[in-house]
Amino acid sequence: MKNELIKKENGVYEIKGTIDAKEWKDLEEKAIEILSKKVQIKGFRKGQAPIQLVRSRINPMDLINEWTNQGLNTLYRNILREFRLNPFIQPEVNINDQTADSLTATFKITVHPEITLGQYKGIEIELDKVSVTDIDVNAEIEKLLSDNSELVLKEEPAALGDTVVFDFKGYVDGKEFEGGSAQNYSLVLGSGQFVPGFEDQLVGAKSETKVDVNITFPEQYVENLAGKDAKFVCMIHEIKTKKAPELNDEFIKTLNIGGVETVDQLKEYETKQITLRKEQQARQKHLEAVVSTICDNAEVTIADAVIKEEVSKYHKSLLSQLEQNGLTLDQYKQITGLDDEKINEQYAKEARANLVRSSVLQKLAQVENLIVSNKELEEQFARIASTYHMDVAEVKKYYGTPEAQNELVQQILGGKLQRFILANNPPKQEEVKEEAKPAAKKKTTTKKAAAKKEESSEASVAKKPATRKKATKKAE
Fold it and tell me: What are phi and psi of 138, to 5 degrees?
């Protein structure tokens, strides 16, 4: 058997394969054996008649078809094995020559993304410095007060941030339109829930008054309303404003934060929480930068058909989401201002980026032999069971399908990859610069003093200067 690589281009291989006379003859016998099991001869059970008897009963065309299929399947398997190919879709096959003595066929094979790793260890990227200011702490406390605020009625006119409870009806060309009305609707002014210009016109409104709001729908809107002028008749029922609690020890005790009972303790607690959050963000940013560099360093070949298949998946996902939200694809295009070409360009860019990342990390795991053992999988089952107070058997049942279990395996593998990358690409340490010292006055030294100074100098060279290492915590 001879297999010849004719052309390799952008993730697509064109390979000619040939089956020699001996193997081709063996495959004929295999085809006859397969077909013989379907032949019924009187006096024998189906598939049990002597092969000599069966041969004459096999349809010649059926034999040629089965023989050819066996030959093509054999060629395909051997080509994949010889060239170590991972096919993405079914190949295109062209039979070049088929005789009683041999079979020659050409296969056009589109493969999964092919990766050649570049540098993936010793990548030096600095970890962002973390600092927490009084502004950060005060903003967090203000948010805490806002979250614990209560809405109270106000007599004054509505202002941005207030909640207006009102009825409204929308009219276009003097006619009420579908979906343009509601009763007792609660709207936070400035939240941007309604089309531009709507909420601003309710600022200054008072309770139990009528307000006419005139707007123009954006050009990128649903087809029947896009670019049209509309009038909304609004009946204001109530205006509510947030009343924040007073920041004192009594309020802080109601938060039930362990060890926090005073304003000072709350500030200290929030400082620690903000620090932890910023440190985690810094570590995540560092990890993403390292992974991005590893991907940039790799040589990646992705066939157009692979990108096209991924784009097709994105389209299906988009249609599903639109259907859940009661929209059509045409309406989505009108709202976003995108056409088919722009959507495809956007999806192709996303698909390529995601494929590069996943394929490079998969190749890295393969090269470094990072695998998930049965023991690790069992340990993960036990952790999930403990977290959700379930029996391990229930957890295993939940992950009973190959797809679900593979998803869990990928999660575990992702954690191992992350730990490997962080261990081999620690953050770049900040250089410690020595401060310039004032020049010492020149002194006359004795030989003994000079010798002592020389010993001291040698000792300082031999001893490595101490450097402060930043404390880093591995992200799980």
Answer: -65, -35
Q: Which residues of 295-309 are buried (b: 16+ CB within 10 A; e: fewer)?
A: beebebbbbeebbee
Does the pLDDT value for residue 239 go beyond 80?
Answer: yes
Phi, psi (5° rounding) for residue 128?
A: -60, 140
- From the list 198, 230, 202, the residue with the least C-alpha distance to 216 is 230
Kind and range of the H or E run holding 399: none
Residues sharing a CB contact under 8 Å with residue 187, sequence separation 6 or more, in sequence order: 163, 164, 166, 193, 194, 199, 202
Scanning the structure block, which residue is given the tokens 């953050």?
Answer: 427
Mean pLDDT of 206-225: 89
Q: In angstroms, rounded to a whole number, what is the distance separating the alpha carbons of residues 400 and 274?
A: 40
Nearest to 208 by CA among 166, 236, 232, 239: 236
Question: What span, in angstroms and rounded, lies between the C-alpha atoms of 435 and 88?
Answer: 60
Segment 138-154 mean pLDDT: 94
Query: What's the burial of 115, exposed, middle or buried (CB within 10 Å: 0-12/13-18/19+)?
Result: buried
pLDDT digits (tens, 9 = 90+) for 310-339: 999 999 999 999 999 888 898 888 888 889
Q: Please determine, for residue 474, whether its predicted confidence score (pLDDT) is greater than 80.
A: no
- Would you give the distance in Å from CA 103 to the centre of its chain? 46
Distance CA 108, CA 398 (A): 40
Q: Which stretches within 175-328 are classed as H helix?
A: 249-254, 263-297, 304-324
* Count of Cβ atoms closer than 10 Å to residue 183 Cβ: 11
**Mean pLDDT of the 218-223 span:** 79
